[in-house]
Amino acid sequence: MPLPLRLVSLLVAGCVGALVPVSPAAAADDRSLQRGLDELVAAPGGPPGVIVVLRAGDRQRVLRAGTADVTTGRPLAARDHTRTASTSKAFSGAVALSLVREHRLTLDDTIGRRLPWLPHAWRKVTLRQLLQHTSGLPDFSQSPRFRSLIAADPHRLFDSRRLLDFVADQPLGFRPGSQYRYSNSDNIAVALMAEAATGVRYEDLLRHDVYRPLGLRDTSLPQGYRMPEPYMHGYAVGGPSGPEDVSEAIGMSGVWASGGITSSPRDLSTFIGAYAAGALTTRAAVREQRHWIPGASEPAGPGRNSAGLALFRYATRCGVVLGHTGNTLGYTQLMAATPDGRRALTFSLTTQVNQAGNPALLRKLRAVEEDAVCALLGAKGAERHS
Prior knowledge:
The protein is an alpha+beta fold and about 375 residues long. Helices cover about 35% and strands about 15% of the residues. An 8-stranded antiparallel sheet has the order 2-1-12-11-10-9-8-7, with helices on both faces. Strands 3-6 form a two-stranded antiparallel ribbon. A two-stranded antiparallel sheet has the order 4-5. Strand 1 and strand 2 (about 60-65) form a beta hairpin. Helix 1 runs antiparallel to helix 9 (about 265-275), helix 3 (about 90-100) packs parallel to helix 7 and helix 3 packs across helix 8. It is globular and about 55 Å long. The two termini are about 30 Å apart.
């Protein structure tokens, strides 16, 4: 079918990607941001490399510090592949909302209707609640058995469509819709609902409904542990022998729709610009998606966080952006865009940063992410009320 005009305009802006001179104010913002990136790399436990891509219409700026590979010293590039971690959840949201546009799913569809083989106690959970992490589903990734299997064989090939079996004997953590709790199980169930509604594999839905319409060339959902070339190497830091390359230490079949996508900063910038603007769904679904409740992404993003449907609102000192974060062994990500999608940023680190592992570094990271938002928005500011 023909692409909506608003999607075509976003694609044109995202594909031109010209490197052009910036204004003196933007140059000052970039210098401040560059200092922050340099300080992140130099900080205790900091990443060996970090890259930020800022896109405003047909203008793209790339800032970086450190290296993509500590062995060769190669600089990071916007086309380098990276593990996207939980930003993958936004892709599952994009698939689900595209199916809502096609009337193949509704936000009020339930697990009981679409996935009747799952536990009876989960039957009333809706697609809306899964997307907003208000479902109460127990988190399969916290299951002791799942963790023991990963520890025994990090390359283990799981049946991704049976990951919820690890918690199928558990009740809901709370009444659906009554509170927010981030759970990796939610987006596994979203992908299974999409497959049940269409009879099409989730990987094929991603290609047909997301990658192809948006022109994403570097994005895939692998099952194994290999990284496609070229890629930014991910590291575990802080050990006595220096950074340890963990880029291919774990397989992706055990995270699947909740965290398994591999992409590049360039593709992520294109994706989040279109997704935040609602280019893949209807205006009515966008209004539902932007019903914000208290809740932070994992790790927390810049400014004050609130949760929508597979999308977070980050209210910073310079304005509002919409996006998602993620972290996994060797990598940390932020992707965000203005609500109209015309300005977007990606912020990629080559080590894992979260509250549990290094809260001080996370605080510093969030401050520099906020600087990146300010550099993105510049004098124009943001749509502060979206």
